[in-house]
Prior knowledge:
single chain, mainly beta, Immunoglobulin-like, Methylamine Dehydrogenase, Chain H, five-stranded antiparallel sheet, elongated, disordered N terminus
Amino acid sequence: MRARTRLSLLAATALALLPGLAVTSASFTDQAVIDGNQASTATLTQERPIAEEVTATSIELSWSADPAGGLTPGYVVQRSLTTGFEDPATVYEGDATSVLDDEIPPVPPELEVTAVAAGSFHSCAVADSEVYCWGQNSNGEAPGGGMDPVPIGDGTAEATAVATGLSHSCAVADSQVYCWGSNSGGRAPGGGVDPVPIGDGTAEATAVAAGLSHSCAVADSEVYCWGRNNYGQAPGGGVDPVPIGDGTAEATAVAAGQLHSCAVADGEVYCWGLTINGQAPGGGVDPVPIGDGTAPVTATAVATGDNHSCAVADGEVYCWGLNNGGQAPGGGVEPVPIGDGTAPVTAITGGQWHSCAVAGGQAYCWGFYTEDEPAGDGTDPVPIGDGTAPVTATAVAAGESHSCAVATGQMYCWGLDNHGQAPGGGAVPVSIGPWCPPDMVLASDESACTLIPGTDYHYRVSHGIGSWTSPWSEALTVTTEPAP
């Protein structure tokens, strides 16, 4: 017999009693008639007869049901800061009829961050050998989107490196390269939120880079690139990794810019791809050595921005290419030293029109400056933060208009935050993790996320039997107590 469903909703009610004694309730009744049997009747009710049931950081909810025929309904309770339930949080899923909405663990818990990457509008990091991403998720590059880092993959492989491009991301895990996000041009075969292995897995990968629409990696000391190849940045193009150069030099690092790529091999920097601003002298598919053979001559790291490049050689930074904001002083094909060379440089990164480095355990940035992005407004490297955070930086990453750094195993980001890629935004580095959802606050000891004192929270409930699900109830609004 075909199931017949009859639904009805009762309006929310609110009753104020004596001072300090109040009842606030919202109720609904939904009845599902399935094969002639009443499946369930459920009511959401939250009462506050005494003040202890609603505190500054917790709310106790209860609801009732009258199932028929021995059927047990399942419930979903959601919470939101708005009556329209934009970006709701699920408070409870199950068959119980009450829940204490009080605290959840920070997301993620205390993790040791070892690597960070900044894309155009998203960021990723390696923490406790797992990859997390946050920010814009237009093509699956940061599943979940927003300011909350989301783990990538199933966590079974041990990640050691991560890279972010325009709208795709890549990582090295168990010596295998994986990519996810947009697959335009073949940069992330498969596309979407699930990491897809690159190549046949026979070569041991140690480094990875993501550009505008192409990707590169170092595997068995050789550089491979794949994706769009409109300017020679990824010879061959498409989803299959293609070796770069003749393989005679031992590659140790690789970087992918907007339309060019660079690598370090045998202590020398080579670049290929678009060279309209001198970022890859020579242009085309053949790697060309950078500089006159004396500087940089013992390079250890390389980085690429949109249209400029930088390298670390003998503990000093050199940059070349486009210099419209001071990111590569001098501009053109000749590498120019950055800073005064007094502090040894250990890490380098290139953003759209700015560059950053770690020197003496301090993060510095220079190049184009906006109100939200402290890049120095010119050629002189400017220290990031107040000198205490980050103070012992080990890694740094520059995106289109935001930057991130790792210091003492903790992650910090600053700059443009239009998609959650640098929570908080502005010129002051903000600690990333542990952190909380937007409708909660981190406890003073950073051990948990709790409800915000003195805040209106809106709740609604739905219940279901089998594949049948009721509509949402009328909203229940409860205000947490003010902070003590």
